[in-house]
């Protein structure tokens, strides 16, 4: 990566218009972060400890939980560090790492939601061939592919951003290093790069969303062919959690990166929800509507608390 920068560190100014509320935000965000880590770790333990959950759907859910542990960890520790009264400075290399891993994990999750939609499509539309199509080898390839293509996308966006010279102002008007705010600090014309970044950031989630929409169109059609009301209810119940998680994941991307006139305060608020609240809600979304996960979670909690099983 070419580096013409004379800036060695950046100063994170934090969430706009929140001066004087640092301690309240610290307590709030720390609570979100701890609950996110605990919830996703419990989902991982529940799936790993129960042989009934060793299926493709839960394998991908496992990977989603891993992503939901690391995704908020990209920006939250530094944010909590300066909210507690410590330095707001972040090194040039640290800023590069923040931007890369934020987009790597975000893109990986986006691809993973697409793979999970395909898994539900095969399970509902081709149930008799499900175990053949979604073999261990195929699941491993799909899971690896989500990270591989996420890495390519993140490398492209990071290189695009940090190939620019940063030779003047170093105050980042945000709580972590992201593309829109970093381009504002560059000592060069960024209009063409902004357009390329806009197309790249918009095209990837749009492509994933269209593939998910195609999968669920086929799923809905197949469900409507089921004669029994109970069968339709169970099929819809299986997919509703995934659809809820998809909406929570894709809506912030549209609001942050595809709005014509960026609003710093709105962007920061939506970004915090995307970074902390969505990963915290995912374990609840996938466990509350799933009896098998709830049963496995109950066993895990009983073992952790040393409570006898009833």
UniProtKB/TrEMBL annotation:
GO terms for cellular component: plasma membrane. Residues 39-286 form the G-protein coupled receptors family 1 profile domain. It comes from the Eukaryota. Keywords: Cell membrane, G-protein coupled receptor, Membrane, Olfaction, Receptor, Sensory transduction, Transducer, Transmembrane, Transmembrane helix. Its main location: membrane. The chain crosses the membrane at residues 23-48, 60-83, 89-118, 138-156, 198-224, 236-258. The keyword Transmembrane helix applies. The keyword ATP-binding does not apply. It is found in: Cell membrane. It is a multi-pass membrane protein. SUPFAM superfamilies: Family A G protein-coupled receptor-like. One of its GO terms (molecular function) is olfactory receptor activity. InterPro entries: GPCR_Rhodpsn, GPCR_Rhodpsn_7TM, Olfact_rcpt. This is Olfactory receptor 149-like. It comes from Chinchilla lanigera. The lineage of its organism: Eukaryota, Metazoa, Chordata, Craniata, Vertebrata. The gene is LOC102005126.
């Amino acid at each position: 990566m070419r580096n013409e920068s004379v800036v060695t560190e950046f100063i994170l100014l934090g969430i706009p218009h929140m001066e004087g509320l640092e301690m309240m935000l610290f307590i709030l965000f720390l609570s979100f972060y701890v609950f996110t880590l605990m919830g996703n770790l419990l989902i991982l333990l529940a799936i790993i400890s129960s042989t009934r959950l060793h299926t493709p759907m839960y394998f991908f859910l496992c990977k989603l939980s891993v992503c939901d542990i690391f995704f908020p960890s990209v920006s939250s520790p530094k944010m909590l560090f300066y909210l507690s009264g410590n330095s707001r400075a972040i090194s040039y290399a640290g800023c590069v790492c923040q931007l890369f891993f934020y987009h790597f994990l975000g893109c990986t999750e986006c691809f993973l939601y697409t793979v999970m939609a395909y898994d539900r499509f095969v399970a509902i539309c081709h149930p008799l061939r499900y175990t053949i199509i979604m073999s261990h080898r195929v699941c491993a390839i799909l899971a690896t592919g989500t990270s591989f293509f996420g890495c390519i996308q993140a490398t492209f966006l990071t290189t695009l951003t940090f190939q620019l010279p940063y030779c003047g102002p170093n105050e980042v008007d945000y709580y972590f290093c992201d593309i829109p705010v970093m381009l504002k600090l560059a000592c060069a014309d960024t209009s063409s790069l902004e357009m390329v970044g806009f197309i790249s950031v918009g095209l990837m989630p749009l492509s994933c969303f269209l593939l998910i929409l195609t999968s669920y169109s086929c799923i809905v059609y197949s469900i409507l062919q089921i004669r029994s009301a109970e069968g339709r209810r169970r099929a819809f119940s299986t997919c509703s959690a995934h659809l809820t998680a998809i909406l929570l994941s894709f809506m912030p991307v549209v609001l942050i990166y595809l709005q014509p006139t960026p609003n710093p305060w709105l962007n920061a608020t939506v970004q915090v929800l995307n970074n902390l609240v969505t990963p915290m809600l995912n374990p609840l979304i996938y466990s509350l509507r799933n009896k098998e996960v709830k049963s496995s979670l109950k066993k895990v909690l009983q073992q952790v608390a040393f409570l006898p099983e009833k």
